[in-house]
Amino acid sequence: MNTVYVNLSSIYSNTTLTQNNLYLKGDSTLQFILTGVSEEVNDVISLEINWGDSTIENYKRDLVYNYKEKSIFTEILYGKLGGSVMTDYNHTLSLNPSSNFTALTAQLLIYYSNGVYADIYLPITLVSESYYDNIKKFAINNTQMNSLSSSNTIANLQSKFNKQTYITYLQK
Length: 172
Known about the structure:
Layout: E1 2-8, E2 15-18, E3 22-25, E4 28-37, E5 44-50, E6 56-60, H1 73-78, E7 88-93, E8 101-112, E9 117-127, H2 131-135, E10 138-145, E11 153-159, E12 165-170
Parallel strand pairs: 1-4, 2-9, 3-9
Antiparallel strand pairs: 4-7, 5-6, 5-8, 8-9, 10-11, 11-12
C-alpha cells in the first residue's frame, strides 16, 4: 500500500496545488490520509476524489453527527468536533495490461463552509513490473546434466510467487 499524506493549512481563497509525480510499480493500492487538513477556521463540508481511472467518490459532512452509529475517536484524536470527511481513503489502481506505463492524475476537491475550495492534483505513473520483479523467488524443480565434456546444466526453476516454471540453461 502506498500512502499519501495531505497537509493543508487554513485557506481563505480558492487554491490549486499540484504535488510531485508519484511512481508506483504494478497494480497498487493508494491511500490518502487527509487528517492533516486544517479545519480550525472553516469546516470542510464536502470532498470529491477523482482517482484518475474514471472512479469518482463524493463525501459530504453530516448536518447532525450521529454518535450512535459513528465513533468519536476521530474527534478526540484530530480535534475535529462534529465529525469530518477528512479521514483516510483507499483505492486500488490497475495497470493497463497492454502498456508498460499508465499515467493517471488523482484529484482531491475540498469544499469549505465559507465557499472557497482547495483543488489538489497528484500525477501518478504506474510502471509495469519487469521480468525479474514478476519472478520474485525461485525454487529448483529439477536439473539435467549434459555430456561430461561440456558440464552444462539445464535447470527448471519455479517461481514461488506465481508458480510459473522457467527453463534455464547454465553454461560452464
